[in-house]
Amino acid sequence: MEEEKQIPEAEKEVKEVQDESPKPLSVSQEIPKKDHPKFVWTWKSFFFSFIWLAAVVLIIDFATKWGVVNFFRANPDIHQNPNLGNGSPSLEVIPHFFYITLSYNTGSSFGMGSNMAWMRYVFIVISWLASGFIVWYWLKNLHKKDRWIDCVLALVLGGALGNAIDRTFYWEGTVGFSGVVDFLQFYIFGFQNNSFAIFNVADSALVVGVILLVVIVLVRSIKEARAKN
Known about the structure:
The chain has 229 residues and is mainly alpha-helical. Helix content is 55%, strand content 9%. The protein has helices at 2-20, 43-49, 51-74, 119-140, 147-169, 172-175, 201-228, and strands spanning 90-94, 98-105, 180-186. A three-stranded antiparallel sheet has the order 1-2-3. It is globular, with a radius of gyration of 31 Å.
């Protein structure tokens, strides 16, 4: 009789322990995922977002382009680069190395595709799509406070917008010329050889930004690979 009484008591104790053990959460009771921290705009966060850098690039690009255009409009007889047989407006800055040479480009950066008129419309679409994507990606990832990436994106955005504005709005019937304004000409490989492609501030910002982005990605990838090993 004593053994029969002990068995129900043991079963009762086991049942109590089972009731006290934690139960698995149902789908409706799952712990909610933490949202990304909200980005708060302050003067400090504005500075380190580097959006102002895109504006600086855009302003410098706009000012230098129109400064060169207006300079050669006021001085149409300046042709100081003897290598240019077509009489293109050119001002010698460093003899046989650096010239300010006015050129209108209807293609992409550094004159690519300028011999095909229809390519201008393609580059207009690409320029604005690329600019929009950069803004979207930048806003989406501001909370990460990745200052290197934000700085690079600002450079690329400023350059993309600078040339996009030229391609879209500068036509013969509106401003008296057609295409992107280029004016920086360097003879890196010697004056007797062809010069490097004529370019502008926006092109420079784009190239520097892309190079920095590649370097940052490579360095971080190498660090991550070493950390895993």
